[in-house]
UniProtKB/TrEMBL annotation:
Keywords: Cell membrane, Membrane, Transmembrane, Transmembrane helix. This is Glycine transporter domain-containing protein. The chain crosses the membrane at residues 6-23, 30-47, 59-78, 90-112, 118-139, 151-171, 177-196. It comes from Neisseria subflava. It is found in: Cell membrane. Signal peptide: none annotated. InterPro entries: Gly_transporter. Its main location: membrane. GO terms for cellular component: plasma membrane. Residues 6-77, 94-166 form the Glycine transporter domain. The keyword Transmembrane applies. Pfam families: Gly_transporter. It comes from the Bacteria. It is a multi-pass membrane protein.
Amino acid sequence: MNTTDFIQIIGTAAFAISGYLVGYNKRLDVLGVVITALLTAVGGGMIRDGLVGRIPQVFLQTDALIVVFATLAIAWLVRVQRYRSTYLAAAFIIADAVGLAAFSITGAQIGMALQLNLFGVISLAFVTAVGGGIARDILVNDVPMILRTDLYGSVAILIGGLIYLFGRLGWINIFTLNLLFAGGLLFRLTAYRFHWQLPGFQRRRK
């Protein structure tokens, strides 16, 4: 197993957990929880593959599905939902941050493999990382996290840009990939902790 495969597995499991927690928080039934977990874990990759004109990998390989269902089985066996809401909220943020960083890297690497330009690499990193979360949030009638929280999509854009730069310089290796993963994760969690935000717009009061 190479570094990219490992990062892909970590990201899939992390997003499956975040989808599970969203489904539990919304009091969905078993099928609903499975759907939110699957959407979060594989939705971004399916959208990405559609953009580049190939059959979604989840339709050809079962690795992601095995990871998702194994993660859900473990979450159910340890009864994650029995823990306090504050712990569950923290678990969601951490799991979502892990998935965000991991899928940003895998999406960007696919863009590099297809020899896309900077915009293309960043776009695939962005869509892979946030597409599943957007689909999940729309399904449960929430405003997508990317539109309302601390520098969420910016992490994917930054990682995608750095992957492109490192690729052009010949710096893509185990060390730099792990460094990007750790850096993206730390950046997302720090932004959440200190409420770093992009400039917003507010309506003036009449």
